[in-house]
Every structure is written in structure tokens, then in C-alpha cells.
Design goal:
By secondary structure, the protein is mainly beta. It has a 5-stranded mixed β-barrel. The longest helix is centred in the middle third of the chain and has 10 residues. The termini are far apart.
Length: 143
């Protein structure tokens, strides 16, 4: 059984079972989360550039949703989402050495939005994933 009690913006969670009794107090007013978890395939070799001698790697990562057959027999088509991945410093150096198009990766990071003007002074927006940690899960398939 789990009981959640909210008092003055503080969430107190009580969980009880045969093995564990614990209490977790979370101040909800001070809490905020920006966390992204992705599992997908790299779309192209990382592009490496330097900002004030700090390496930055950027590359696209594809995540897929499989097609789903509904109970009435219709099929919802599959879908691929592309994510702009950004790695800094040591992670960027690792990306330069080991990540290639087709590499399967697990990524944890944060969402960042950036607005910039192109040459024609048109405002553009981009959503990027700033990587906090990652794991390489497989090498690209050789052709």
C-alpha cells in the first residue's frame, strides 16, 4: 500500500509492505525536473567543433515507435523521431573516437531550446538534448 499526503506543498509518501517501511519527503514547490532518456540509433557520424578550446560533438539520434495493430484490426503506422544530440568535453572526445552512423546508444540528458537568426534575419528555433551520461550498446552494422 502506498499513501501520498500533500500538506502545504510538501508531498509525504508512505510505502508499506512485508519487507520495507519507508518515508520520503519531497518539497514540491522547490522541485523541477528536466530529464530525457533516449534509446536509439545515430543518424550520422558526429560533427566535432571547438568553443573556447572545449570540444562539442553534435549528431542526430533516431528513436522508433513500432506499428500497432488495434483491436478492431486497423494498424497505426510506425514513426521515427529525430533528436539533436549535443555532447561536451570528455563525452565529445569519446563521441569523436567511438560513435559512428548506426551506433545504438542509450542517452540520459536535458532538453535545451535555442533561438538564433539565420543569414536572412529569420528567427529559427532548435530543440537539443544535452547529454549527461550515455552508453554505447552496439556498433554500426558493416555493409
Amino acid at each position: 500500500m502506498i499513501t501520498v499526503l500533500v500538506i502545504s506543498g510538501i508531498s509525504v509518501i508512505f510505502a508499506k509492505n512485508n519487507l520495507v517501511n519507508f518515508q520520503l519527503i519531497i518539497p514540491l514547490n522547490d522541485m523541477s525536473v528536466n530529464k530525457v532518456i533516449l534509446l536509439g540509433n545515430v543518424g550520422r557520424d558526429p560533427e566535432i567543433r571547438y568553443v573556447e578550446k572545449r570540444p562539442i560533438a553534435s549528431f542526430p539520434l533516431a528513436t522508433d515507435e513500432r506499428p500497432v495493430r488495434m483491436p478492431d484490426g486497423t494498424e497505426r503506422p510506425g514513426r521515427t523521431e529525430w533528436h539533436n544530440i549535443i555532447m561536451w568535453d570528455g563525452a565529445a572526445e569519446m563521441a569523436e573516437r567511438y560513435i559512428r552512423k548506426g551506433t545504438r546508444m542509450y542517452i540520459e540528458g536535458r532538453l535545451r531550446y535555442r533561438i538564433w537568426e539565420d543569414r536572412n534575419t529569420i528567427k529559427r528555433t532548435v530543440t537539443e538534448i544535452y547529454v549527461d551520461s550515455f552508453e554505447l550498446l552496439g556498433s554500426p552494422k558493416s555493409s
